[in-house]
Write a structure and sequence with these properties.
The protein is an alpha/beta fold. The protein is built from six helices and 17 strands. α3 crosses α4.
């Protein structure tokens, strides 16, 4: 079996042309996840026979990470109990996502042969690479969606996302055309928003998001007051701030941790300063000192001002937990 399949803690990876070998190995180990891969020396299969899936009633997670020309017995997938499916390479024959009856988690490379990806109403987690649409109108039909990711896609606007009433987490990465995020305003269910390498996203999110807890806004912001519309925010990451006064972060009612880069000398506080003060507020100075003691860098301007390094060295906080 080792020649055609590899055993991992959570799944079996198998050469696509030897699917039955992978099925038998997964069954023998009590695993429920399979990934189809290329063969020896990167050989790509032409026809992949999916009929062995009929002998694997416990299969829940199927990954296709190899270029495939066509499938034999595609109905074996449609009649399975797969709840998680990923298609991360080109496929030459159609997979109709709407016919995978129990599907809840879908990750795929956008391509014509992946059909009805936005018509499978039971999907709760969706990740899409290289999507060619310019907005999220297609996605808006997925009323049960709680998690959404777009990577290296052509979207220019988030219009349509406001219809996803259950959405809790949004991640957007390397979408260099995205500039309009106004549709986020008022989505009460949103708890986490992350933008990474999205250079045209506006520096201010003019939105009220009452339950947003985590925000990663990977651009330069004008001032830290931009988080005023997010009263539940606990974690905030940003690139840099035009206003050097970061003390407003300490006025937020729920903020617990921050991260920003670069840590400019002109800022009123370093990230270490801010996090020390926030930890002191929420967990007590003992916890803040314990955290600082285990951190290589303790030279923030605030911490230097109170002589934290010297006070720890002198044993002032020896009764605090290590």
């Amino acid at each position: 079996m080792g020649k055609f399949a590899s055993l991992y803690d959570t799944h079996v990876a198998v050469d696509a042309q030897h699917l039955r070998v992978g099925v038998e190995l997964a069954l023998s180990k009590g695993l429920t996840a399979l990934t189809l891969r290329s063969g020896a020396l990167g050989a790509k299969p032409g026809l992949v026979d999916l009929s062995p899936l009929r002998d694997f009633p416990g299969l829940r997670d199927l990954g296709i990470s190899v270029e495939v020309d066509s499938f034999k017995d595609i109905d074996a997938l449609y009649e399975s109990d797969v709840t998680e499916l990923s298609i991360m390479d080109r496929i030459g024959s159609e997979i109709d996502i709407a016919r995978v009856p129990n599907l809840e988690i879908l990750s795929f490379e956008s391509q014509p042969k992946v059909r009805n990806a936005f018509a499978a109403n039971d999907i709760r987690r969706l990740s899409v690479w290289h999507y060619k649409g310019t907005d999220l109108a297609e996605v808006s039909a997925l009323e049960n969606l709680t998690y959404l990711t777009f990577v290296q896609s052509s979207i220019k606007s988030l219009e349509g996302i406001q219809k996803l009433a259950r959405l809790k987490e949004l991640n957007v990465a390397y979408c260099r055309s995205l500039a309009d995020v106004a549709a986020l305003d008022g989505i009460a269910s949103l708890e986490k928003v992350k933008f990474e390498k999205v250079p045209k996203v506006p520096p201010v999110l003019n939105a009220t998001l009452p339950n947003l807890r985590e925000l990663e806004w990977g651009v330069n912001i004008p001032n830290v007051g931009i988080i005023a519309g997010f009263p539940s925010l606990e974690s905030f990451v940003f690139a840099s701030c035009a206003d050097d006064d970061l003390s407003g972060l300490l006025d937020h009612p729920n903020l617990r941790r921050v991260r920003f880069y670069p840590d400019k000398k002109s800022y009123s506080h370093t990230s270490e300063d801010i996090n020390f003060l926030l930890t002191s507020r929420w967990e007590g100075v003992e916890a803040a000192v314990a955290h600082a003691r285990h951190t290589e860098y303790m030279g923030g301007r605030f911490m230097s001002h109170i002589g934290l390094r010297e006070r720890i060295a002198n044993g002032e906080f020896d009764t605090f937990p290590h």
